[in-house]
Amino acid sequence: MKRAARRQVGLLVAVCVLLIAAWWQLRSDEQAAPGKLLSLTPEAISRVDVQMGNAPAEHYVKRGEHWWRVEQATSTRADDLRLGELVRIAAAPVQSWQPADHYDPSKIGLAPPQAKLALDGQTLSFGRMTAVGQNVYVQSGERVGIVSLRYMPRSAQSTSIQAP
User: Fold this and answer.
1) 44-88 tens-digit pLDDT
2) What residue segments make up the domains of the chain, in order of their start?
3) Measured between alpha carbons, how far is residue 140 from residues 4, 65, 97, 98, 155 in Å?
4) How many Å apart are CA 152 and CA 38, to the nearest integer?
5) Residue 69: CB partners within 8 Å, gap ≥ 6?
6) 49-53: long-range contacts, CB 8 A cutoff, minimum separation 24
7) Which end of the chain is more exposed for a tag (fewer CB within 10 A), N or C?
8) 3-state SS string over the chain?
9) Each residue of 93-130: pLDDT tens digit?
10) Quick check: 42 pLDDT over 80?
């Protein structure tokens, strides 16, 4: 075998080793990731309840392809894009999880929470921003996660439209 052919085989082996190492690292990172806020699939969510601070809770139900705000006697068509933002919060990547008893709820803004979001009955309570970075504390059940501030819910009421 000529020297050039041996060199090419050696380079091919080196590239294969690097690809395997990169695949292994990505697989390892995925397994070590803390996961997402809820196990729900955003597309499968059909009920949303959101409460911002002390304001009254807003209740929404998905009927067919559209979202509707549900009140005692009436239903009003809601902004599908805004509700889409709210249901995608379920899949927000969590930076870290800790048991809820590791925190004082009043110090991280969870007593009372800044916002509450219930997606198909699973409640997320949003607290204050973390001391470092653009992140926020979120309680889900008996644990508290840290997620990006962009996942903090906002009211969907402002863009509701009246159904014809």
Assistant:
1) 999 999 999 888 999 999 999 999 999 877 888 999 999 999 999
2) 1-32, 42-159
3) 60, 28, 10, 11, 20
4) 14
5) 58, 59, 60, 75, 76, 77, 78, 156, 157, 160
6) 49/116, 49/117, 49/118, 50/86, 50/115, 50/116, 50/117, 50/118, 50/153, 50/155, 50/156, 51/115, 51/116, 51/117, 52/114, 52/115, 52/153, 52/154, 52/155, 53/112, 53/114, 53/115
7) C
8) CCHHHHHHHHHHHHHHHHHHHHHHHHHHHHHHCCCECCCCCHHHCCEEEEEECCCCCEEEEEECCEEEEECCCCEEECCHHHHHHHHHHHHCECCEEEEHHHCCCCCCCECCECEEEEECCEEEEEEEECCCCCEEEEEECCEEEEEEHHHCCCCCHHHCCCCC
9) 999 999 999 999 999 999 999 999 999 999 999 999 99
10) yes
Measured CA to CA, the distance from residue 54 to residue 123 in angstroms comes to 16
Phi, psi (degrees; rounded to nearest 5) at 16: -60, -45
Smallest CA-to-CA distance from 152 within 135, 130, 140, 164 is with 135
Structure tokens at 51: 């409460």
